[in-house]
Amino acid sequence: MRVLLDTATFLWAANDAPEFSAKAREIFADPDNEIFLSSVSAWEMAVKYALGKLPLPEPPARFVPRQRKQHGIDLLPLDEESALHLSRLPFLHKDPFDRMLVCQAVVHRLVILTADELIRQDPVRTMWRYYCEDVRRDDRVQCAGARDQNNPVRIEERSAVKEG
User: Fold this and answer.
1) Count of domains forming the chain
2) Number of H helices, E strands in the chain
3) Which tens digits make up the pLDDT trace of 12-65?
4) Would you place residue 95 in the very low, low, confident or very high pLDDT band (cuts 50, 70, 90)?
5) DSSP, res 1
6) Crossing angle for the helix pair 39-50 and 7-15, to the nearest 10 degrees
7) Residue 114, SS3?
8) What is the CATH classification number for the domain harbouring 41?
9) Which of 6, 11, 1, 17 is nearest to 99 (CA)?
10) Is 87 buried (19+), middle (13-18) or exposed (0-12) by CB count in 10 A?
11) Residue 86: inside a domain, yes or no?
12) What is the pTM (predicted TM-score) of this model?
């Protein structure tokens, strides 16, 4: 499975934080998964660090590449197609960093590993605890590459869980 970490997930993984769910840890540690960090997340961390809103053990210019290398995380640069996809994204929330992560995930067919409820409202596949969400379809689906191919996972639409 091709997985894009959101910024908080990257920080939790780097710090082995308790907020990093057991399922998220399993996905992150699975050697069959390709794990990516967007340059957009690096940008977000640099901005928040400069504003004094993100304490890090070292400046982001050293911290981010070091953590990516230590954990085997690939860099996902921001490309033109992803940036232009923003015009097609519903305006469900205002976070410009999260909105661009969603665009990258859609364009590059990635699953976003995130606990962020706002990202999970967007039309993109996400994972965190026990399910994969795909708000573009109104049925049960499986995330590509999921280990248990016989266990359908639940879809959460923007307003309610679809039973079926």
Assistant:
1) 1
2) 6, 6
3) 999 999 999 889 999 999 999 999 999 999 999 999 999 999 999 999 999 999
4) confident
5) -
6) 80
7) coil
8) 3.40.50.1010
9) 6
10) exposed
11) yes
12) 0.78
Residue 28 lies in a domain: yes
Domain coverage including residue 41: 2-133
**Pairwise CA distance, residues 111 & 132, whole Å:** 8
Do you know the residue count of the chain? 164
In this structure, are residues 106 and 134 in contact, taking their beta carbons and an 8 Å threshold? no
Cα–Cα distance, 83 to 122 (Å, whole number)? 16
* Beta carbons within 8 Å of 118's beta carbon, 6+ residues apart: 92, 93, 95, 98
User: Tens of pLDDT along 105-151?
Assistant: 999 999 999 988 888 777 788 888 644 444 444 333 444 433 333 33
